Amino acid sequence: MTPRQNRTRDRAERGIPEATVARLPVYLRALHGLQDRGVATVSSEELAGAAGVNSAKLRKDLSHLGSYGTRGVGYEVEYLVYQISRELGLTQDWVVAIIGLGNLGRALAGYGGFASRGFRVAGLLDADDAIVGERISGMTVEHVDRLEDVIAERSVSIAVIATPAGAAQGVCDRVVAAGVTSVLNFAPVVLSVPDGVDVRKVDLSIELQILAFHEQRKAGGPELPDGDGPPGPAHYVEAVDA
Ligand SMILES: NC(=O)c1ccc[n+]([C@@H]2O[C@H](COP(=O)([O-])OP(=O)(O)OC[C@H]3O[C@@H](n4cnc5c(N)ncnc54)[C@H](O)[C@@H]3O)[C@@H](O)[C@H]2O)c1
């Protein structure tokens, strides 16, 4: 069982509501702000104010983590940061492999934002001998024949698929068989995976089409009966944000 599955099971057993889980990053951001100002302890009222929730809800949320604070003192900021980070899985690195190092894979490999969010790219794999051996962002591209070995040797937990559509399902089947349970798919194809595997699909052309739809509406274009159009852009950025 992967650490993420373990944590999901623990959470379910301890009964932490998803709404609470969704507020934890907000508390964490507020706590980081307090840490930056050198604040060591914080009352539930202060923290609730900084996070924009009411203090009863905050106390209830934190009680799910086993954190009750000390009467008259409040919560110890550093320890609460640790507890929330642990709950969210931020105390460990998530190891990522990118498969397909064409235009998109290269851009992703060079994206600096992964590391600061706890994601470490540890494998770049491609099927093209002309690309294998190339250095991209300080890493050497390996042949996709080594996919299973790379996943096992480096404990890869997230696979990013940036191959052409026709190759994506085959790559997906291999990463899943090798034990990966999280896949971020950029190929324009719906991947079939067994239960217990999470796939997030990013499709920029769908995002653009939705924006085009809303642009058309703003410009007074064809009116559709309620419910016939796609949801607002905010509903769809979810996959990109994940
Ligand atoms: N999701 C989006 O918003 C978005 C945007 C652009 C492109 N795409 C899609 O992302 C994918 C990559 O786009 P691109 O422009 O980088 O394409 P590309 O052709 O430049 O790169 C694809 C790479 O995959 C490699 N490849 C092919 N089969 C493979 C296999 N079995 N195993 C490993 N590597 C393999 C190729 O050698 C190539 O280097 C395409 O499916 C494309 O449609 C998605």
TrEMBL record:
DNA-binding region per Swiss-Prot/TrEMBL record: 26-65
GO biological process: negative regulation of DNA-templated transcription; response to redox state
Domain CoA-binding, first and last residues per copy: 89-190
Pfam families membership: CoA_binding (PF02629), Put_DNA-bind_N (PF06971)
Record keyword Lipid metabolism present: no
Binding-site residues, NAD(+): G100, L101, G102, N103, L104, G105
Subcellular localization: Cytoplasm
GO cellular component: cytoplasm
InterPro entries the UniProt entry points to: CoA-bd (IPR003781), NAD(P)-bd_dom_sf (IPR036291), Rex_actinobacterial-type (IPR058236), Rex_DNA-bd_C_dom (IPR009718), Tscrpt_rep_Rex (IPR022876), WH-like_DNA-bd_sf (IPR036388), WH_DNA-bd_sf (IPR036390)
Keyword Translocase: no
Entry keyword set: Cytoplasm, DNA-binding, NAD, Repressor, Transcription, Transcription regulation
GO MF annotations in UniProt: DNA binding; DNA-binding transcription factor activity
Matching NCBIfam families: PRK05472.1-3, PRK05472.2-1, PRK05472.2-2, PRK05472.2-3, PRK05472.2-4, PRK05472.2-5
PANTHER family tied to this protein: REDOX-SENSING TRANSCRIPTIONAL REPRESSOR REX (PTHR35786), REDOX-SENSING TRANSCRIPTIONAL REPRESSOR REX 1 (PTHR35786:SF1)
Family stated for the protein in its record: Belongs to the transcriptional regulatory Rex family.
Assembly description: Homodimer.
The name this protein goes by in its record: Redox-sensing transcriptional repressor Rex
Organism: Actinomadura rayongensis
Gene it is expressed from: rex
